[in-house]
Write a structure and sequence with these properties.
Elements: E1 9-16, E2 19-28, E3 31-43, E4 46-54, H1 63-78, E5 81-85, H2 91-96, E6 100-101, E7 104-108, E8 111-115, E9 130-133, E10 139-143
Parallel strand pairs: 4-5, 8-10
Antiparallel strand pairs: 1-2, 2-3, 3-4, 5-9, 6-9, 7-8
């Protein structure tokens, strides 16, 4: 298992047209080892992350969070919400990164409409996995359906 002190990290963010990726490398001696990536699409004024991955030896060391923060910074600069589908085991990770569980959402003008926002034990539960992060400054309405 690696530790953060064993790593010299390089982060690459590339966006071409509607497609983008964030790739995290560990620079070990003269080798660049890919340790994680996020693949995403940009359309309809939102980002949809289709693949988020950190290889096993580098998990639980903060590298997934680092890539999410890079994606959120890009989204904030462009006033885009970030949508992804999470496996059940990763929901708590995404919540710690500021994501909310929702059943669906849509844009109306410059307002993001979220439906069935999870409210905890007392509120209506939503299907697991649909997660959204909304940048500061984007108007957001929450609707329980």
């Amino acid at each position: 298992m690696k530790s953060e002190s064993d790593c010299r990290i390089h982060v690459s963010l590339k966006v071409k047209g509607n497609f983008g990726d964030i790739v995290l490398y560990n620079i070990d001696k003269r080798k660049w080892i890919r340790i994680g990536n996020i693949v995403f699409m940009v359309y309809d004024e939102q980002i949809t992350a289709t693949d988020v991955d950190v290889i096993e030896n580098y998990q639980k060391l903060g590298f997934g969070k680092l890539m999410i923060e890079v994606l959120q910074r890009y989204a904030q600069e462009h006033m885009l919400s970030v949508y992804l589908y999470s496996l059940r085991d990763a929901i708590e990770f995404y919540k710690k990164c500021g994501f909310q569980r929702v059943s669906r959402f849509r844009r109306r003008g410059c307002k993001l409409i979220l439906t069935n926002v999870e409210k905890g034990k007392d509120g209506k539960q939503v299907s697991y996995g649909d997660m959204v992060w909304v940048p500061k400054g984007l108007k957001c309405a929450r609707v329980a359906v």
